Structure formats: C-alpha cells, structure tokens
Amino acid sequence: MYGFSFDRASSVQDAVAKAAKGSQLLAGGQTLLASMKQRLTSPESLVDLSSIADLQGICKDGNAIVIGAMTRHQDVANNKEIQSTIPGLARLAGGIGDRQVRAMGTMGGSVANNDPAACYPSGVLGLGATIKTNRREIAADSFFQGMFSTALEPGELIVAIRFPIPKASGYAAACIALCIARHICCQN
Questions:
Q1: How far is the C-alpha of 48 from the C-alpha of 23, rounded, in Å?
Q2: SS3 for 107?
Q3: Sign of dihedral through CA atoms 21, 22, 27, 29?
Q4: How many CB atoms sit inside 10 A of residue 120's CB?
Q5: What is the rounded distance in angstroms from the CA atom of residue 44 to the CA atom of residue 60?
Q6: CB-hemisphere CA count at 13 Å for 174?
Q7: Quick one: pLDDT band at residue 2, thresholds 50, 70, 90?
Q8: Is the pLDDT reported for residue 176 higher than 80?
Q9: Using only C-alpha atoms, what is the Rg of the chain?
Q10: Using one digit for the tens of pLDDT, what is the confidence trace for 10-27?
Q11: Mean pLDDT of all residues belonging to the chain
Q12: Among residues 145, 171, 188, which one has the least CA distance to residue 83?
C-alpha cells in the first residue's frame, strides 16, 4: 500500500464535512482496503465512521426493521428480532465471508459499494428496502444503478436501511443454487 492520512468522524455531519474536503469514508473496510492493496483506488485521506453511534444498531419501527449503516454483519446475523421477523436476512448476514469479515464488515459499506460479489444488495432489492441517507430516502429499485454504482451523490452518506417485514423470507447462497442447477442440468 501507500501513505494516506487517517481520521475518525465524530458525527454524521463531521463525516460529510470531511468527505467534502476529499476524504474517502471508511465503514468496515472489507472492500475499500482490498481495493487499496491492489492499487485500484488510492485515497489520500480516510475517515473512519466506526465511532458514530447514530449509525449503529437495529430496531423495530412499526412493520419494519431499521438497521444502522455501521451495523456489522455478525450483529445482523445474531439479532433475535431479525431472526424472528426476517430470517432470510439473518441467514444472508451469517454467510458473508468468514468470521473476521462478519466481525468488521458493515451493511452500509456493502450497500454503498454495490459490489456485484456482495450479498446485501440482492437482499435489499429482494426485500424492497429503503436506503436512508443524511439527505433523503431512496427505494432500493432506484438506489442500485449498475456494478459499483449507486444513486449516492457527493456529500451523501447512508445512515440506515429500512426493511419492511415480509410475510416470509429465505436465503440460499448463489453458489449453492448454481451447484444445484448444474447438478440437475448435468443429470439430464
């Protein structure tokens, strides 16, 4: 890697102000740091969002579950409310990467990057979630615009994602579905 400055944001407003000055926002870092190691991106300054309490947590709000952008994958997977109301989302989160990735990676970082290899974008779309930013709310269908591309504008930061509670949910990893489909196709 190469040299860069590192700072922590104390609030959403602080993070947005630092990003406006050219800093790259750092959530869990699971995508960003790997991209930096491969020299696919080279920010001069990183701003860590992990100490912003307003971006963390899970709560039930009416007929929805609201998950803060800095909520870690392991917290989504292990949350009893999510396990009972949206079990497919809990299963999705529990199958992301390995234990270390689940301990550091965040829902907001995954959704903001819209990496086609990530699981959350499909879950957000499939469950008809709404992405809440510091400026507005965006329906999932309008948020994801292409690989690594979203409707986020400069100075806009995901603060939470609101999932309506479905009548039922489930999750099967794409590689499992591919193996099953391949097995069925190869048998005929």
A1: 10
A2: helix
A3: negative
A4: 27
A5: 38
A6: 8
A7: confident
A8: no
A9: 17
A10: 999 999 999 999 999 999
A11: 88
A12: 171
Q: φ and ψ at 5, to 5 degrees?
A: -90, 155
Per-residue pLDDT tens over the stretch 91-120: 999 999 889 989 999 999 999 988 887 889
* Residue 89 parent element (H or E): helix 87-94
Q: Which two tokens stand for residue 118?
A: 């990530």
Query: Cα(107)–Cα(82) distance, rounded to whole angstroms?
Result: 14
- Structural domains of the chain, ranges and CATH numbers in brackets: 55-175 (3.30.465.10)
| Lowest mean pLDDT segment, chosen from 31-40, 57-66, 152-161 | 31-40
> Contact 67/107 with Cβ under 8 angstroms?
yes
Rounded Cα distance between 100 and 102, Å, is 5
Enter the tokens of residue 113: 């990057």
Q: How far apart are CA 160 and CA 55, in angstroms?
A: 7
Write down the pTM of the prediction: 0.88
**Cβ neighbours for 135, distance < 8 A, ≥ 6 positions apart:** 153, 155, 156
